[in-house]
Automatic annotation (TrEMBL):
GO molecular function: hydrolase activity
Protein name: Cysteine hydrolase
PANTHER family assigned to the protein according to its UniProt record, in alphabetical order: ISOCHORISMATASE HYDROLASE, PEROXYUREIDOACRYLATE/UREIDOACRYLATE AMIDOHYDROLASE-RELATED
A Pfam entry, by short name: Isochorismatase
Organism: Pseudomonas muyukensis
Source domain of life: Bacteria
Keywords of the record: Hydrolase
InterPro entries, A to Z: Isochorismatase-like_dom, Isochorismatase-like_hydrls
Domain Isochorismatase-like: 8-158
Length: 193
């Protein structure tokens, strides 16, 4: 079993209204938000650090273009005043956001990553975290992605895209666990809030 330090941080990526836009297409993990919510409740209960990341796109066509409702956090993932909030303009939450410095200042070495999109912001952030030496966990059932076409036009189902992204991360960058394993690693007093 993986045990988590008392200052292991839960990093919630891009849980904003825009991610529910129909134009993004079919997705996998329909219960991902429930798993994220359970993890968030457990982190708050155990008083471990929670970090929210908001994407502010530089692309006017993005669901995360500043000034529109898509940039707002989903109600269930609205940060508390005591929780850290970082904004990013590229998929990687550790790139030019100040997050890495913030983590180092607090001697946080363990990151537990949830959110969207598995093969974009989650994967990019987890790769950087692993490269920077953080003990990184990606929670497989607390992330999701969408169907995607490759460069030859083949349509890949979201579940396949998700599985491949997690497999890539497991090679060198992060451990892949499910939410039950993570909750168990918080200790007996913190299971499911």
């Amino acid at each position: 079993m993986t045990a988590f330090a008392s200052n292991a941080a839960l990093l919630i990526i891009d849980m904003q209204n825009g991610i529910n836009h129909p134009r993004l297409g079919p997705r996998n993990n329909p219960e991902a938000e429930l798993r994220m919510g359970e993890l968030l409740a457990a982190w708050r209960h155990s008083e471990r650090p929670v970090i929210h990341v908001r994407h502010m796109s530089r692309d006017p066509q993005s669901v995360f273009w500043p000034g529109q409702s898509g940039c707002q956090f989903q109600h269930a993932f609205t940060p508390l005043a005591s929780e850290a909030l970082f904004e990013k303009h590229v998929p990687d939450a550790l790139c030019d956001s100040g997050l890495a410095h913030w983590l180092h200042q607090r001697a946080i070495r363990q990151l537990v990553i949830v959110g969207v999109i598995t093969n974009n912001s989650v994967e990019s952030t987890a790769r950087s975290a692993g490269n920077l030496g953080f003990d990184t966990v990606v929670v497989a059932d607390a992330c999701y992605t969408f169907d995607q076409r490759d460069l030859q036009g083949r349509l890949w189902p979201a579940q396949d895209v998700h599985a491949l992204a997690l497999s890539n991360l497991a090679m060198d960058y992060a451990r892949i666990l499910d939410s039950a394993e993570v909750l168990a690693g918080l200790g007996p007093n913190n299971l499911r809030g």
